Amino acid sequence: xxxxxxxxxxxxxxxxxxxxxxxxxxxxxxxxxxxxxxxxxxxxxxxxxxxxxxxxxxxxxxxxxxxxxxxxx
Length: 73
Fold this sequence. Notes:
By secondary structure, the chain is an alpha+beta fold. The chain has helices at 37-40, 42-54, 58-65, and strands at residues 2-3, 13-19, 22-27, 32-36, 71-72. Strand 2 and strand 3 (22-27) form a beta hairpin. The radius of gyration is 11 Å and the shape is globular. The chain starts with a strand and ends with a strand.
């Protein structure tokens, strides 16, 4: 898991992992959601990976766009 470096410290996200066509997001409440290109489209996955690496905007993106997740734990 890579640490999500939120500069504002106002995110519910603590970390993430990703591969070519998926991203898994770990939240501070110990839940984790996986999003896959087959569910939401590769463009959305690429946006989420960019936001995760930049450390800003991923939580807002998920909240506003509500992409369909492929699994939840």
